[in-house]
Specification:
By secondary structure, this protein is α/β, with parallel strands linked by helices. It has one domain: P-loop containing nucleotide triphosphate hydrolases (Rossmann fold, 3-Layer(aba) Sandwich). The strands form 2 sheets. A 7-stranded mixed β-sheet has the order 1-11-10-4-9-8-7, with helices on both faces. A 4-stranded antiparallel β-sheet has the order 3-2-5-6. Helix 3 runs parallel beside helix 5 and helix 5 runs parallel beside helix 6. The structure holds adenosine-5'-triphosphate. Adenosine-5'-triphosphate binds next to strand 2, strand 3 and helix 1. GO terms for molecular function: ATP binding. InterPro entries: AAA+_ATPase, ABC_transporter-like_ATP-bd, ABC_transporter-like_CS, ABC_transpr_LolD-like, MacB-like_ATP-bd, P-loop_NTPase.
Length: 267
């Protein structure tokens, strides 16, 4: 089903949100309210996000697509508290991150947000097990052994816990990165092109895993991708162009996504 979603009001589920400065309800993990982000480089100003409103309900797998330069990475950075909006409000689990200083945003990211990147970002000198638990140890939190064991079993990594990342395939490395991202039971995981470096088979396995994590564990995932086949595994795909949300596709099919991107001049 395709549904028009101008910036406001947007489609239900990934909805335009007029909550203003009120904390979002607990079932809303991420809320952007009229967010604009202007990047300045010398005398040049680029509006990367243009008055974007969005809510991401808990337990949602949301894909973000759009042509190069449409604002996907900026949306992810601002929603994850890695960058601050020029105007507007960003809430994570009801906390207004746009008003937090850098130190408190760092703590919020560490405690409540997981990240998965195209390049896995594993530490080569550490074992799989150490990579998974290191962020918790750095945060002086005791790893929840039962939870981590369940994740390791589910991802099929139980036989490789004592290997180093270089001894794993790309798909295995990405699964380690996913377990690491989930180890602290974050409110949300942001995945930036998580299958961009993988072959079709490994990519399919990683996407199946991400979808299971949402459907079976109730996790919330926002994934930026250029790949319509990857976005088709999400519950919803949000299409960006020129810093705006121009469409939201529910249960998106890859051909419909590809056609929509082509119509925007992207891939
Ligand atoms: N730090 C920055 N300084 C200046 N301009 C920036 C900066 N980051 C992004 N931009 C500009 O903001 C716009 C949106 O960029 P963004 O990286 O969010 O797009 P994107 O959709 O993620 O692109 P891609 O698919 O190529 O990664 C682009 O015009 C980009 O050049």
């Amino acid at each position: 089903m395709r549904e028009s979603a101008g910036v406001r009001p947007a489609a239900p589920g990934v909805a335009g949100h007029a909550a203003g400065l009120r904390p979002g309800p607990p079932d809303v993990v991420i809320g952007l309210d009229r967010v604009t982000k202007v990047h300045r480089a010398g005398a040049t100003a680029v509006t990367a996000l243009d008055d974007v409103s969005l809510t991401v309900p808990r337990g949602t797998f949301l894909a973000v697509m759009g042509p190069s330069g449409s604002g996907k990475s900026t949306l992810l950075q601002v929603a994850a508290g890695l960058d601050t909006p020029t105007s507007g409000t960003v809430t994570v689990g009801g906390t207004d991150v746009s008003r937090l200083g850098e130190a408190r945003r760092t703590v919020l990211r560490r405690d409540r947000i997981g990240f998965v990147f195209q390049g896995y970002n594993l530490l080569p000198a550490f074992t799989v097990e150490q990579n998974i638990t290191l962020p918790l140890r750095l945060a002086r939190r005791a790893p929840d052994g039962e939870w981590i064991r369940a994740l390791v079993d589910r991802t099929g990594l139980d036989g490789v816990l004592h290997r180093r990342p270089a001894e794993l395939s790309g798909g295995q490395q990405q699964r380690v990165a996913i377990v690491r991202a989930l180890a602290a039971r974050p409110d949300i995981v942001f995945a930036d092109e998580p299958t961009g470096a993988l072959d079709v088979r490994s990519s399919g396995q990683v996407l199946t895993l991400l979808r299971e994590i949402v459907d079976e564990l109730g996790q919330t995932i926002v994934m930026v991708t250029h790949d319509p086949a990857a976005a088709a595994r999400a519950h919803r795909a949000l299409i960006m162009a020129d810093g705006r949300i121009v469409d939201v596709l529910h249960d998106p099919a890859a051909p419909a996504l590809a056609a929509r991107l082509t119509s925007l001049g992207g891939r």
